[in-house]
Amino acid sequence: MKKLLYPLIVFWALLVLSCGTQSTDTSSSSTAGIAPGLGQSAVQDDVSNPNIVQVAVGSSDHSTLVAALKAADYVDALTNVGPFTVFAPTNAAFDALPAGTVEDLVKPENQRKLRDILEYHVLLGVYKSEDFVNGRNLGTADGRSVAIMVAEDGTVSINGAKIIGTVQASNGIIHVVDQVLIPQ
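Structure for Putative surface protein with fasciclin (FAS1) repeats, as requested:
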């Protein structure tokens, strides 16, 4: 038994010592360009197709949505691999809310409430417009569901908000909608 124990102790000692040494050369690191302590959104990648957040940031019609994502600390979640389907309200949709609503929601003390609203705009998986079935309810990221309506002309609405455009992203699909979806 002692003959087996000695090599095992030596092996563990070498393993512990080798794990404790780190190279100080970070130039060849596979994580170069990532700020320490930040999430997926800190990764700098100008080569790949843009993800959902990058598409929203690049759209002048979605600056209010981007500000809400930042205030709710929801940027990293939508930067991850996904796949996601996001119903993205336009600035005009946010402007149609009662006066002061957006300003109130982006306050730090309302972060959880804002995040719940944003999660209500997200489905797990990719749903193209042609995948939506009239009368079907689909579960959202916040655990609730949205109702899908497909008009005879093919127009798709989610809880009454019409899809007015669709954009592919590297981690899912974005359906631009003309209203903010408010959970009941």
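The longest strand covers residues 161-169.
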